[in-house]
Amino acid sequence: MSDQIKFIVDNLNKEPFKKNYNLITFDSLEPMQLLQVLNDVLAEIDPKQVVDIREEMPEQTAKRMLSLLGILKYKPPGNATDMSTFRQGLVIGSKPVIYPVLHWLLQRTNELKKRAYLARFLIKLEVPSEFLQDETVADTNKQYEELMEAFKTLHKECEQLKTSGFSTAEIRRDINAMEEEKDQLIKRVERLKKRVETVQNHQQMLKIARQLRVEKEREEFLAQQKQEQKNQLFHAVQRLQRVQNQLKSMRHAAADAKPESLMKRLEEEIKFNSYMVTEKFPKELENKKKELHFLQKVVSEPAMGHSDLLELESKVSDNQ
């Protein structure tokens, strides 16, 4: 217990609490003062907990603290009976209840800050099913769930960026290095300009160099245009082939569209349909009727018992 109190006092004396306690003064705190210390630590984790507990009912204080501790996933020691004791201890500011909570909170303050922040957006509001029957409520609830998923994705990306190794200091160093390289290049260009100016007819030579650069850029542009036109020609040839095949198919269909061909095809269809109606379908219908009659006969007969089966087996044996 003494190590626990020492840890609590050391952390309360640091930023951001600056309580200036020692072991004696901290252990001498009144229950209401101890509850306020606990509330101050909770307020550092979740700013919504900033409250003067003297202006709050004890039951309301306990309910608020229990709610946040549940979100932070604090597990009091013991069973359900001890939970009642834990709640009562919060109400009265009991040291055996408060000290372990303070110790647990101060061990992982930064982690709990993140957990409390995420809880504001990720604890789902359960809407009763009867309210979801309303179309407006259902649409709003769907948007709410989509926004929650979007927040999860964005927060995950943000955390990945934070741990990716990039920092503002490194970026500033890179920018400074590039600025230095830029200055060096500018100085180098100035030196080359001065060196070129000493050459005879340097203006004409610079003009020719600029023209050469322009022509090279034009050559690259024309080569790119040539490749694009080749691609367009290839696609045009493919389209032409498809159209020619369609035209060929249409011509064959038109050739088959003569009156004689149409009459012949119609006669064949009539013969086929007549065969189906007068021969095939009646036969199939008759077979189905026979099957139905047989099944109805089987269903109408009484079920065979064990003695009937023995009798049949004896008859089969006699026949053999």
Automatic annotation (TrEMBL):
UniProt keyword annotations, A-Z: Acetylation, Cell projection, Cilium, Cilium biogenesis/degradation, Coiled coil, Cytoplasm, Cytoskeleton, Differentiation, Phosphoprotein, Spermatogenesis
GO molecular function: tubulin binding
Chief localisation class: cytoplasm
Entry GO CC: ciliary basal body; intraciliary transport particle B
One record GO biological process: intraciliary transport
Localization per record: Cytoplasm, Cytoskeleton, Cilium basal body
Residues in coiled coil: 137-246
Family named by the database record: Belongs to the IFT81 family.
Function per UniProt: Component of the intraflagellar transport (IFT) complex B: together with IFT74, forms a tubulin-binding module that specifically mediates transport of tubulin within the cilium. Binds tubulin via its CH (calponin-homology)-like region. Required for ciliogenesis. Required for proper regulation of SHH signaling. Plays an important role during spermatogenesis by modulating the assembly and elongation of the sperm flagella.
Protein name: Intraflagellar transport protein 81 homolog
Origin species: Dipodomys ordii (Ord's kangaroo rat)
